[in-house]
Specification:
Layout: H1 3-31, H2 35-64, H3 73-102
Helix pairs in contact: 1-2, 1-3, 2-3
Amino acid sequence: MSEELELACFNIITHVGTARSNYIGAIQLAKEGKFDEAENLIAEGEKEFVEGHHAHADMLTKEANGELGNAGVLLIHAEDQLMSAEAFKIIAEEFIDLYKKIA
């Protein structure tokens, strides 16, 4: 695996991992009735997710152009983290709406 590909994978993992942590934190804040803070964390998470998504799109473009070497387990992990973060965002938004209704 090339150093460029490895760096791109870690860039994705870092950004979407932060996004996922923000989404989980947002659920916890909503549970406490702190809805504005929860929504702020969702927004911060979205910014991180977009950064990770852009890094992924750039990597796919380079790979399609033959500019990257073989992808391996690290890329699969990075893409798994990307999808996991996206799922957590959806779940977090649903939980926030639910906690608002309960409150």
